[in-house]
Amino acid sequence: MSIASSCASLPPVQSDYAPKGKITKVNGLDVYWAIPDSFAEAKTKNAVIICYDIFGFHENVKQLCDILASQGFLVALPDYLQGNYWTTEKFKNEGHQLKEWLDENAPPEKCLQFTTPVVKQLREEHKVQNIGYAGLCWGAMIGVKHCKDPAFDACILIHPSMLTTEDFKNCQCPVAFLPSKNEPDLETQFVKDPVLTSKPFASKIVHRRFDLHHGFVGARGNFKDSANVEAVNEVISISVNFLNENLGVKY
């Protein structure tokens, strides 16, 4: 699965959202934390690590984190790109080089290394018991790479790009596919592929295709547009149900 053409052409939107979380350093890496109000009293503590799209710490993604936190999840958003985000200027000059840029600035193995201390902090400092992973666009590919690790109980792929069947061979947890209209037929390409249908969690796999543009949940989403907001709310609802059903379950 290649990068969606819109991924290298659609710019991010402007947002006036005021994030509710905080940014701290974890092993030298900035991490945005969205913490549920009930976290201190919670007995079963569930967390989600999110990988953003190529535009990095955008307010739309932080808002997604905050909403998930309002549903009882401790959310960590690592700054995998370390502040070096894709820009509108790069669209003009380097749009055809997006994959090369990602390979140079945030190769999967580097992202995996960044995640390790975040998981450690979730376990040791926050006493988290169960962890899921969610990725947007390019971040979905990073999510699949993480899900060969038994530390993760669920993986959510939101308008994903750069996926391959090979990536799912070692996946050990249920996956939710939430593509936009710009992605190929992921149900045929992945959900119905024997690589996933043979997994013990095959019945837990979710697929829902949305009739919106690539990036509608992330930095390209217009959260003032009713259709966009309705779709984002459905993505969140599916994600919350998916996490609640699968966190803490091992296969």
Automatic annotation (TrEMBL):
Hydrolase in keyword set: yes
Sorted UniProt keywords: Hydrolase
Record-linked Gene3D superfamilies: alpha/beta hydrolase (3.40.50.1820)
TM annotation in the entry: none
Residue intervals of the Dienelactone hydrolase domain: 30-245
Domain of life of the native organism: Eukaryota
GO molecular function: hydrolase activity
Listed Pfam families: DLH
Name of the featured protein: Alpha/Beta hydrolase protein
Origin species: Gigaspora rosea
